[in-house]
Amino acid sequence: MQWSDYDAVLFDLDGVVTPTAEVHMAAWAEMFNAFLTSYDGAGDRAPYTDADYFAQVDGKPRYEGVRDFLTSRGIPAPQDLVVELGDRKNDAFNVVLERDGVAAYPGSVLLLDHLRDLGLPLAVVSSSANAPAVLEAAGLADRFRIVVSGTVAHELGLPGKPAPDTFLHAAQYLGATAAGSVVLEDAVSGVRAGAEGAFGLVVGVDRGAGAERLTEAGATIVVADLAELVPTGDAA
Question: What φ, ψ does residue 164 adopt, rounded to 5°?
Fold first, then answer.
């Protein structure tokens, strides 16, 4: 691929730029397993696993992830319960972020440096409401012209991934078309959003979802680390 063929680059955040997907995974597991342990109603109360995360939660807006998980287990999902559990998860995430901080993946920083040198406009498109705080903690807030977080999507009335609307909004803001933009995603739902939006290149970043699943969801190419997308001379 040639980066010069494109006009804008749209990054998911958690699991693509920063390893905060691991923090999210831990927060989801803690919250859901505490709920399942205390829950005595109808449905499957088996412990929540990483497989549940990748199948039901990864990449989606928080409340949608709660609802989809509960529904997958046959557990009633009234809105008040969905909001309560989603807020519990967000509280757990913020505690870990404040305590431990976050550092970007080295390979992701290499790619960000390369794209900065090329002058390509960049955006973060994340389902997380915490995206701005994560970028600040990682020292990367100044790298992106726009951050389309879960909060921004809600304010604008944009449906979350796997709908392509948040990516399309970011591309438009950067003055680019979908066909002239690159999407980088580690979540199946995010890859589907890129494919559905007919973006020029959809890069799947395999941090655990699996290369085959990302390809089936519509990834044009799949990499294990963003350093693979940096020309050899620049990465040396």
Answer: -85, 0
The catalytic position among 5, 7, 12, 225 is: 12
Q: Encode pLDDT of 189-215 as tens digits.
A: 999 999 999 999 999 999 988 999 999
| CA–CA distance, 8 with 178 (Å, rounded to integer) | 9
236: pLDDT strictly greater than 60: no
How many CA within 13 A on the CB side of residue 234? 18
> Whole-prediction pTM value?
0.79
Question: What span, in angstroms and rounded, lies between the C-alpha atoms of 124 and 155?
Answer: 16
Using CA atoms, how far residue 162 sits from 4, 104, 110, in Å, is 27, 24, 28
What tokens appear for 159 in the block?
A: 């449906």
Q: Which of 7, 14, 68, 91 is catalytic?
A: 14
Long-range contacts of 90-99 (CB under 8 A, 24+ apart): 90/27, 90/62, 90/129, 90/130, 92/26, 92/27, 92/30, 92/31, 93/23, 93/24, 93/27, 93/130, 94/130, 94/133, 96/23, 96/26, 96/27, 97/20, 97/23, 97/130, 97/133, 97/134, 97/137
Orientation of helix 20-38 relative to helix 79-100, angle to 10° = 140
Contact (CB, 8 A) for 176 and 166: no
Q: Is 206 a known active-site residue? A: no
- pLDDT tens for residues 80-112? 999 999 999 989 888 878 887 889 999 999 999
